[in-house]
Amino acid sequence: MTIRGLIAEDEAPQREDLCTKLRAYWPELQLVAACENGSEALEAVSQCRPQVAFLDIRMPGASGLDVACAVAETGGLVVFTTAYDEYAIQAFEAGAIDYLLKPIQDTRLQQSVARLRQRLAEPAGDLVARLQQLSQNLEMTRSTQIRWITASVGDSVRMFDIDEVIYFQAHEKYVRVMTGSGEVAIRTPLKELIAGLDPDTFWQVQRGIVVRVSAIERLRKNELGKFELVLKQRKEVLPVGSSYAQRFRGM
């Protein structure tokens, strides 16, 4: 039986990659729309009434949550894609909504497809109510995002605006906070820091490195064929993990 599906993702390489993988892993899925922003997705939902929608949670125009509510109101199922947002992931896991963490792994996508196939025969229930609660949770997350970094330096305490930070790097029991003029070390675990950072502003590029996107000058390959980042305000070059390189397509 053919299933109507919709994709909404504002980054073209990721949108095209997801379309290709879904065609391979779910032949019965007919992609009726592949949208590059939330407003376009809302119009497509109204016209095509997809049974399944894969939605980037943060897009230009209407948000992924706005589109998800429209899909849910027609009885459709929703899968969110997200770069990193620990609070959002916890909310997804607590309910019936699935999520895919970027960069999307093949095995995880296959698991999501299998879950959707099972749930298509089930009623949507209170999905709209859960989406509304999720929206409230995300608003609370944004209100608690880190604005200042406090670090002990000798016998004094220094404060850095988050806008000064170029990147964070886990190092033994500390996290190095690198700015344009120097560095300090803090004890806050990197995982805890990530939960308080804006995922549109800071990207994780290695298991132990999170960098400000606007501080990146370019992505290049070294002599070993590995990706690395050249920064605008610092001389060191940062390695990019193979599982994180996909998000730089199109840069």
From TrEMBL:
Q: Name one Pfam family in it.
A: LytTR
Keywords from UniProt, A to Z, are: DNA-binding, Phosphoprotein, Two-component regulatory system
**Phosphoprotein: is it a keyword of this entry?**
yes
InterPro entries given for it? CheY-like_superfamily, LytR-like, LytTR_DNA-bd_dom, Sig_transdc_resp-reg_receiver
Coiled-coil region(s): none
The Response regulatory domain, residue ranges:
4-117
Q: What one GO molecular function would you report for this record?
A: DNA binding
Question: 4-aspartylphosphate occurs at which residues?
Answer: D56
Recorded hits in Gene3D superfamilies, A to Z, give: 3.40.50.2300, LytTr DNA-binding domain
Q: Describe the location of the HTH LytTR-type domain by residue ranges.
A: 149-251
* SMART domains with a match to the protein in the record: LytTR (SM00850), REC (SM00448)
Q: What is this protein called?
A: DNA-binding response regulator
Q: What species is given as this protein's source?
A: Dyella acidisoli
